[in-house]
Design goal:
The protein is an alpha/beta fold. 41% of the residues lie in helices and 23% in strands. The strands form two sheets. A three-stranded mixed sheet has the order 1-2-3.
Length: 135
């Protein structure tokens, strides 16, 4: 019997959101407090992009910009790479490879309900393999 793992089965529902006008310094504090490496950037309540810890390092810190004066809107990667929750896990992996990203956001009825990462996918595949081996 084939096993079909859907994106909704492995998504992480914890998504941290900041407004586009938030400074990089404020965003860094939020990321540290929430222990995340990525935040979704919103404008008027709608998701418009993402900022990662790597984006902050490359586009702000390494360039000598002042993180207390630069907003996340100035640095964000856009548009977000998204997938539907009922898509198969293989589709998500292919999308990540095609778009060359480590994280994609899961959208249902126009709202972000979570994300999946390369690391999260590996952990889930190991768990599935372990469960199958135990049968």
């Amino acid at each position: 019997m084939p096993i079909s793992v859907r994106v909704r089965d492995v998504l992480d529902p914890n998504v941290v959101v900041v407004d586009a006008s938030t400074t990089v310094l404020e965003t860094i504090k939020i990321m540290v407090e929430k222990y995340v490496g990525t935040v979704v950037v919103t404008k008027e309540g709608l998701p418009v992009g993402e900022v990662t810890d790597r984006t902050i390092l490359e586009k702000c810190i390494a360039k000598g910009l002042d993180p207390s004066k630069v907003t996340v809107e100035e640095l964000m990667e856009a548009p977000l790479v998204t997938i539907e929750p009922d898509a198969r896990l293989g589709e998500a992996i292919k999308l990540m490879l095609d778009k060359r990203v480590r994280r994609i956001f899961v959208v249902e009825k126009g709202k972000i309900i979570g994300s999946i990462t390369q690391t999260g996918i590996c952990v889930n595949i190991l768990n599935i393999a372990g469960a199958l081996q135990a049968l």
